[in-house]
């Protein structure tokens, strides 16, 4: 039965927006406009800028691949190393630790699981900059800083935590783990709860222990969630900036803790070298996409499920 | 048989105690930074400069005086930062929820030409580090005279791809018959969306509200680029300015940090049930 016959309105008079062929496009229109203005146009312009020398809005010079050739100096390599070190540990720690907690919380062996779930999420609500101040002081240079007192308990000398790449990275990972653990736990639990319980019952009857159950039922069951978590973590790891600003200053002279995004910001806004900053940004994009592509292939994302 | 059951039961109980204790210890550790923050907010800045953080509560030097200093520090600029952060958070979240839920709904509910292409695009954008587009976006803002405005700050977050993705997944779990039935009742497709689908998507809205508020409240890089007048700064930018090579304004920093955490925790406490349910049950209807 035709709708217009019911409502009594002639078809021709009806708004074009109500045409069933048009309706879906109205719904997705905000995204299409957003994509063109916020992603596509800036993306094309950043590619163009990476081949330019920009000394102001009216002084643009095409310089070919010079930005890319000049890019690999000491400071950039340092930022690259910092980013890789952080991204690697970020992915390892933030994939595995929350998974362990999620499995424990999802088993029937814990009292008040929803209380813990809610509580573990609270750190994610805080601003990294604000909490970073606490971490900075906790790992401060004073011998009375909490971390150094902890070392003293074990008879170790006080440490200048944030002055060295490795211990600095440790504090960064700790800050990230503190803030983000609860989020990943919730993602994992959502995956674990979707697994039918009779699979576990059957495995128990077959005599599988809890490790075997985890490896053969839980892990394959949460694969989509696992892929999602790893993909997001790779992105977050390589694009990290705020955590580094929180622990070090925006423009710290030694460059310890400066990431690729930090270096890009330094080039674009402090050194006013927009062309170089664009080239750095594109290298970052290439890195993230390459690492995620390798990861997705390794996880069998493109393989057809059997 | 009976005997081994009893051993199993005892083993089970030991396991429960062990795991629950582990969870408690972890929870306590996670709360330590909050404890530091609160204790330090009660101490005079000079005490902080001399001794740094300490876990001990010293009633002799502790008071709520610092919280009053928030009102007087640079003519109460802290509250201007606070207001900016709140305005940006509310605007960004409201617009983001409306637009991305529409898009997610469109992608999940209709079959149309180009649907898969659009969805693939959403997935790809979720993997693009947004930070690399900030420079050209900033140049665009200059041309459009939008620097130093709140609209400029929220512009890149009007239709966040991760929200589209989430809403799409959620709507896939809603029965399509809802649409058919309402159409037969003479409701337009937009009427169906606003009157019937939106109420069915509340858990998804709850989850996305919290995530969006978190992102906005914590955002540093883009607001830092866009805003340049002191009273429009957000809390993260403003707090950053109190840390200088010549010493940190701890009197403001610590109570400011505590006050910055409070509103978002209040939002969380209220929406917490919907939030966790929304995040965990993308496919289960709420």
Q: What is the CATH domain class of chain A?
A: Mainly Alpha
- What's the oligomerization state? heterodimer
The backbone outline of chain B, from C-alpha atoms, is: flat
The number of strands of chain A is: 2
- The number of distinct structural domains of chain A comes to 1
Approximately how much helix is present in the residues of chain B? over 70%
Order of helices and strands of chain B: HHHHHHHHHHHHHEEH
Q: Give the % helix of chain A.
A: 55-70%
* CATH fold field value of the largest domain in chain B: MetI-like fold
The CATH superfamily of chain A bears the name MetI-like
Q: Using CB atoms under 8 Å apart, which protein chain pair has the greatest interface?
A: A-B, 95 and 92 residues
Taking Cα atoms only, what radius of gyration of chain A do you get, to the nearest Å? 26 Å
Biggest sheet character of chain B = 2 strands, antiparallel
Name the structural class of chain A: mainly alpha
The count of DSSP E runs of length 2 or more, i.e. the number of strands of chain B, is 2
Q: Strand fraction band of chain B?
A: under 5%
End-to-end separation of chain A in angstroms reads 42 Å
